[in-house]
Amino acid sequence: MNKIAFIGAGNMNRAIIAGLVNNDVEPSNITVSNPSAPKREALANEYGINQTSSNSQAAEHADIVVLGVKPHLITTVCQEIAEVIEIEHKCFISVAAGTTMTQIQAALGENKSVIRAMPNTPSQLGLGVTGAFASEQVTDEQRVAADRLMKATGIVKWLAQESDIDHIIAVSGSGPAYFFLFMEAMASEAERLGFTSAEARTLVQQTALGAAQMVVENDIAIGQLRENVTSKGGTTQAALNAFTEGGLPELVSGAMQAAIARAKEMAAK
Ligand SMILES: NC(=O)C1=CN([C@@H]2O[C@H](COP(=O)(O)OP(=O)(O)OC[C@H]3O[C@@H](n4cnc5c(N)ncnc54)[C@H](O)[C@@H]3O)[C@@H](O)[C@H]2O)C=CC1
Ligand SMILES: O=C(O)[C@@H]1CCC=N1
Asked: Which Enzyme Commission number(s) are on file for it (predicted)?
C-alpha cells in the first residue's frame, strides 16, 4: 500500500482524504501537514489519519505527496520539501490551479515525477471528477498508484496536454460552484414565495438531485430530458424563455472562459 502525504489541510485536501477513507484506504497510510493546528487536528481526528506541522516530515515516508495549498504557495512548499528530504522516488501531485508543470518542476529540482491534477469537492462523496496530466518522468508504477488514489474519489480523466487542465477547471473543478449558485438563486426565490429556508433548501436540493440522477440513468440527450419537462406553451416554456432572453447560454460560456483566463493569468505571475 502506498503512503500518501497531503500538504495543506484545506477544503480540497479534506475532500480527497474523506473520499479515500470512505473508500477503505487505510487511514494510517495517510499523513496531513499544515502549519496551523486547528484544521490539521480536526482532519486527523475525524478520519484517523496522521498529522504534523512539518511538510517535509509528512512527505518523508510518502510515495505520493499531494500538494493542496493555494497556488501562490506551491513552489515555496516544493522548495522547502526538496531542501530537507530526499525526493528522488516520490511522485508529487499538485492540485493547484494556475501553477504550471514547469514552475513545479523548477521548484522541486530537475526531472522529478509530477502530476498536475484538477479534482473537485464532490470527491468527498466519491462523486468527484479529476483531470490529470503527468510529466514524462512519472513511471508506469507511479501513474497506476496515482490513478488508483484519484479513482477512490470518483472518475479520472487523463489528459494528453497540460493546457487541458485549464479546461477541466472551467468544467468540473469550478463547476460545483456554478450549480451551488444556481441552487442558491432558486432557494432565495422560493423563500420570497413564502417557503421557509429549510423548505426552500429541501425543494431545491431534491430537484437538483433528481435532475442529475435522471441524466445519469437515462441514456438520452440532456436536451431531450429538458424537452420532456417542457409542455408546449406551458410554465416551463415561460421560464426557459426568460433564461434564453437573459442570455443564459452565452453567460455560461463567458463564465467558463473567465475561469480559463484566470487560470492562465495565475500561471503568468
Ligand atoms: N476548493 C476547490 O474546489 C478546489 C481547489 N483546488 C486547488 O486546491 C488548492 C487548495 O485550495 P483550497 O483547499 O480550496 O484552499 P484552502 O485555503 O481551503 O486550503 C489551503 C490550506 O493550506 C494551508 N497552508 C497554508 N500555508 C501552508 C504551508 N506553507 N504548508 C502547508 N499548508 C499550508 C492552509 O492553512 C489551508 O489549510 C488550491 O491550489 C486550489 O487551486 C483544486 C480543485 C478544486
Ligand atoms: O477557485 C479556484 O481557483 C479553485 C480551482 C478550481 C476550484 N477551486
From this structure: 1.5.1.2
Rg of the chain taking only CA atoms, in angstroms:
21
Instruction: Give the span between the Cα atoms of 202 and 260, in whole angstroms.
Output: 33
55 has binding-site annotation: yes
Of the CA atoms within 13 Å of residue 226, those in its CB half-sphere come to 7
Write out pLDDT tens, residues 59-74.
999 999 999 999 999 9
Domain ranges in the chain are 4-161, 175-268
Q: Please give the sequence-ordered ranges of beta strands (E in DSSP) within the chain, or none if there are none.
A: 4-7, 30-33, 50-52, 64-67, 91-94, 113-118, 128-134, 154-158
Pocket test for ligand 1, best of 16, 34, 74 (most atoms within 8 A of CB): 34
Q: ipTM for the complex? A: 0.98
- Options 3.40.30.10, 3.30.9.10, 3.40.50.720, 1.10.10.60; CATH for 4-161 is 3.40.50.720
Cell output for 183:
441552487
